[in-house]
Amino acid sequence: MNMDLRADLLALLPELTLTAGALVVLLAGVGGGGRRHGGLAVTALASVGLTAIALKIAVDVSEAGRLFFSGMFVLDPFAVFFKVLFLLTAALAPLLSRDYLERHDYRPGEYHSLVLFATVGMMVMASGTNLASIYVGLELMALSTYVLAGYFRREVKSHEAASKYFVLGALSSGVLVYGLSLLFGELGSLDLAAMAAALGGAERTPTLLTGMALLACGFLFKVAAVPFHMWTPDVYEGAPTPITAFLSVGPKAAAFAIFLRVFLGGLEGLTPYWVWLVGGSAALTMIWGNLAALTQDNVKRMLAYSSIAHAGYALLGLLAGSELGVQSVLFYMLVYLVSNLGAFGFVILLESRGYAGETVADYAGLARRQPLAAFGMLVFLLSLGGIPPTAGFMGKLYVFAAAVNAGFVWLVVVAVVMSAVSLYYYLRIAMQMYLREGQEGEGAEVLAAPWTARAIGVCGVFVGIIGVYPAPFAAAARTTAALIGVTLP
Amino acid sequence: MLDWLVAHVVPIVFYTAAVLVVAGAIGVIWFRNPIHAALSLLATFLAVAGLFVLQHAEFIAAVQIVVYAGGVMVLFLFVMMLVNVRTLPREYQYVRSLLPAAVVTGGFLAAVVAAGLFARSYLAAADPAALTAVEGQTMGNTEAVGWVLYRDFLLPFEVVSLVLLVAMLGAIVMGRKDRREEDAGEEAR
Amino acid sequence: MTYLVIPLVKIVVILLVLILGAAYLTFFERKILAYIQIRLGPNRVGPKGWLQAIADALKLFVKEDLTPARSEKFVFLLAPVLIIVPALLVFAVIPFGPSDIWRLTDINVALLFVLGVSSVGIYGIILGGWSSNNKYSLMGGLRSAAQLISYEVPMGFAVVTVVVMAGSLSLVRIVEVQRELGVWFFLPGIVALFVYFVCGVAETNRNPFDLPEAESELVGGFHTEYSGMKWAFFFLGEYANMIVISAMATVLFFGGWLPPFPNLLAPLWALPAVAWVPPPFWFLLKVAAFIFLYMWFRGTFPRYRFDQLMRLGWKVLLPVSLANLMVVALGVLILGGRS
């Protein structure tokens, strides 16, 4: 084995570990009648833990700022930050899912394994410095999530979610690859650094701009930005709730990772062109996502529109583009991840009889029956709404500051107004919980689901700490932002 | 006559294959019988393989035939024959609503192609030397593909194997009998 | 003009020999089966029955050519063509001897060409079965499609094993490497040879894998509705494919045109008494041995059931061929073979 390959494999150690873990979970899931819920969730958790250790090792031994696999793969702090995010998601997913899967009686083996495979895909995306490796990572993630969305095969809604997600996702992949091929034709390379270099002297031909626009459309679809958001509410509503939680944070963060790296790295030279495209989409996303969320009675759909709106806020950081902008997106993703997973955790807890816990009315009088749960939900909702003592406020603050610095004042005005609008639908649930009397036998009970509760606890701790003391987390995001400029021209 | 044919074999083959590609693609959407449409697609695949050969990409041409003609299309035919659809009924309603969409999409594609052609014509003719520099490797086409695939694109290549694994896993998860159905079946036995 | 005339002459010769050979293979097959079953076989037409094949051909020529009323006319006509053309096309790259005289072309991806072209032959069967508008034919066609696709995979791996050992996709080069190494590939690749030939038998729909035309359940299988020359095309295609599989086995595993022990017995092969023997003689001798094996199979083995066939393909041959490929590749790596 030559030294190059050894270094390459060491840098890839986390992905290899997680793949091995996914395979172990898959094989272990075959035995025991496929019903060993606890054991398999623990195995999945353990492989995520081992992957975290592997990530630490890989970062320690790998040469800083070096490209691996012939320029396909990089292990810069930007990638590491996102990988930590993905591992956090992947660790919370089995916790959130364990009780839920058992309650609904679905096989856990393939389920956990697909979640881990999706995570491998996201990790490859975060490290990709070549559109080829980014694209295959994206497909790995996408295929796994299509299957997961339809995992609850006895539910018609789950079928609907999987079909819509698959058809529209495949279409968006087609658009993305088409754009990619046009860019390759014009710039002669899929390597981000080479593309950036080629852009220096390249004429802005219509083909080049079309390719860039199509690529942006594909990415906007993946982050669920308006007008490419149509799939989101249906998929989020129909998919198993833990998968909805996973979808709303993991793949979205991964999409932002490649969005940042491709558009601020490889296509930075085209900023004057894409800034209008992405800016317009960001404004529409914030407006439509929040307005549509107002009318939703189904909590999963409401959170789907809320996640669309959050993608709009995060796009501001991308538009700002500076070091501060990148840092703000990274930080925002962390904040959004813990808040959203926590909120979905409660939806999972409450979803007991069929689809109860999904309508806003199910939350009526929760504060009286379960004060602790109601308070927890309130914290996550406030964080999503961006109210000061929570993490959500800090996240929005960073993003808006970056956007103002970069001169996007009008967008920030839209964002602030829309944040205020968003409070209405977040607090609508809070109102139900605290101010409405639940009728006897109406409203959802909190289920005894210790694993889910643990996951919610982890999210709650993060939301609290980040809200009160954000400095170390923001610093983690900042170092990465400094390095994105070094590894990428 | 013969000498003329031999001298012009490349353009002759190219235009034959190109016409076949387009005609086959049109046939796919033209034929009402799905088997005929599938055969039409087969003609397109074979003609595309011919175009690859003209570009000295023999390996890709062979893979095109083995995978698409020999594998994918056979499975298509297999499924179509098992569900036994002979001829699709005419659905006027669909045709009406599809027409504007087809015009818009087709117009967009035509615009992209035209933009590309136009840009090429006013920029500069492609430099033949640049083309040979890419192709100019002395090694054969298969070796070149091997080198690129297993050295430059090793990581995506390996990730693709995971993608295929997940696709297979997904097909099994989606297609397998439900556990409750299985249990019921076992009890019945 | 010579650059056109010589290949054309070669093409005509190859085609004639192939078609005549295929016709006579039926005769030999009947004779061999007869001897296996201790009877005489055809012996009335011509001396010892030697003109039987000609008589059969004449019969097929003048027979009424029926086309079922509700069949797909065009596809019905296309199917026999699709089965015979790929079978004959493969011979464009088969090297019968060391020099250019003995072959039509030597392209550097000949092996891929063979795999690709023969994978198109499957359409003849599946379309023939479908276009007949007959349930038996359709079932035969579908069975065959499943069978061919299943067995193409382990066959591909067996062939790749040889490619790994030879380091080339050119059939000429593969034979040359066997001469240079002084060992034919059937020795290091004995498992691959086994897998290859079993798959080859399945690919040609021959006994014990002749399910597509299992007469006890499917009447005539995919060609139930065919008659006259169209039927003859299917028949010729099957025998031509047998020759292809045997020829490829010869090239890949048994040193092609090389005489036995080409290096060890080199002085012997240089003797004037033997040296005049053209290389194709050895080639054809080996091909004939494989074809005999085919007929031997037919005389001795019972037919597989469909599920057994699928299990053998996917659960035995595929893992075996994959494992074998890994072992051989490791061997080549350790022995510092060619790269």
Q: What is this structure, in a nutshell?
A:
The complex is a heterotrimer of chains A (489), B (189) and C (339). Chain A is mainly α. Helix content of chain A is 78%, strand content 1%.
Number of strands of chain C: 0
Structural class of chain C: mainly alpha
Order of secondary-structure elements of chain C: HHHHHHHHHHHHHH
Q: What coarse outline of chain C follows from CA principal-axis ratios?
A: globular
Uncertain parts of chain C: none
Total helical elements of chain C: 14
Strand content of chain B: under 5%
Radius of gyration of chain C: 21 Å
Total number of strands of chain B: 0
Number of helices of chain B: 9
Nearest-integer average pLDDT of chain C? 83
User: How many domains make up the coordinates of chain C?
Assistant: 1
**Strand portion of chain C, in percent?**
under 5%
Please tell me what the overall shape of chain B is: extended
- The first-to-last residue Cα distance of chain C is 40 Å
How confident is the prediction overall: mean pLDDT of chain B? 76
Can you characterise this structure?
Chain A is built from 20 helices and two strands. With 489 residues, chain A is mostly helical. Chain A has one domain. Chain A has a two-stranded antiparallel ribbon with strand order 1-2. Residues 485-489 of chain A have low confidence and may be disordered. Chain B has helices spanning 2-7, 9-30, 34-54, 58-83, 92-123, 128-135, 141-152, 154-175, 179-188. Mean pLDDT of chain B is 76; it is low at 122-137 and 185-189. In chain C, helix 10 (228-253) packs across helix 13. The model of chain C has no long low-confidence stretch (mean pLDDT 83). The A-B interface holds A 8, 12, 19, 26, 34, 68-70, 72-73, 105-107, 110, 113-114, 117, 120-121, 124, 130, 132-133, 135-137, 139-140, 143-144, 146-147, 150-151, 153-154, 162, 182, 185, 203, 205-207, 210 and B 112, 115-116, 118-119, 123, 151-156, 159-160, 162-163, 165-167, 169-170, 172-174, 178-180.
List keywords for this structure.
heterotrimer; B: about 190 residues; mainly alpha; 2 domains; 9 helices; about 85% helix; extended; disordered C terminus; C: about 350 residues; 14 helices; about 70% helix; globular
